[in-house]
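debug: dumping io for the single-chain case to check the tokenizer round-trip. Nothing else runs in this session.
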Amino acid sequence: MSKETFLKTTASALGFDDCRICRADEPWPASERLEAFVEAGHHGSMAWMETTLERRKTPTSMWEGAKSAVVVALNYGPDHDPLRSLERTGEGNVSVYARGKDYHDVLKKRLKQLARAFVAETDAEVKVFVDTAPLMEKPLAHKAGLGWQGKHTNLVSREHGSWLFLGVMLTDAHLAVDDPEVDHCGSCRACLDICPTAAFPAPYQLDARRCISYLTIEHKGPIAHEFRAAMGNRIYGCDDCLAICPWNKFAETARDGAFWARAELKGPDLDALSALDDAHFRDVFSGSPIKRIGRDRFIRNVLIAIGNSGDPSLVEHSVVPHLSDVNPVVRGAAVWALSRLDLTRFETEKAARFAQETDTDVKSEWQSLGLSEA
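debug: decoded output
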């Protein structure tokens, strides 16, 4: 059995939905695209992309001895149309990838099993990566033939649509490579046109600073006013550009139960989510990627969704208590939500609280909102 056949057979036995191979030690255009992305400032506050730019440009910057890249994929296809969740404004909408177990843990465990088996079979050296090191997985997956990077910059597969988790094993072994996939987007613009915040300045380019996934997950401070209404009920991530892709007609629901949506994340009640303190937040989201953003950022997102809900009944128990929250980002989001749902109550609370407010951002929220928001 060849090394390549061994890898793919073992990967399949471990539950991976695909496994492909490409060279890791040759120049590629992905490095130039990444450099342009950072130079344009499209990475926003993700400073780590700038500080790790040189290491991120090529796989051999991560490991000089790498000769081949083995790219594996796990399908996490949903059992529903994620776009329909946006219609239920009293519920929080969580990105499909975050509704089950943390994919980092699931994928890395299996990838390490694959690596150990390959080392035992070949005595080669290996290193494994699952979205936590400065390595560009999507371009590697494109190069290896798992799919192509669509106009939304995400990977698209003819077999699995938009729903693939990726992992990479670098090795010093010389392996026969698979053919790269070609771009099948054609003239389609669905992913670009559906974006609620116009985060794509051009096809195949993303300005993360306008992306709801970035805003709800990576961005730590107050979210700019221009994006809040467009966020709707999205409280963690956004699937719009993925879900609208026509190639999803070939996608199947995830086979792996680890990626099936937890009951509490299928349509979580905004009122209940708003009541989470830090301890309960950590308990509810244990083993979930949501846990990494922390309670304060999460409640900020929930309050913006509440402000977009159009439901004044949420004011008393879900909004007003957060006007006194210790975190100013939460307080500011609560001010905005209140202004959207009950302008009379907003003016009453402003009269009682504004003079005592010490944070300049929160004071700015009180000053800039109110009648102008009606």
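debug: round-trip ok. Residues 328 and 362 are 6 Å apart (CA to CA).
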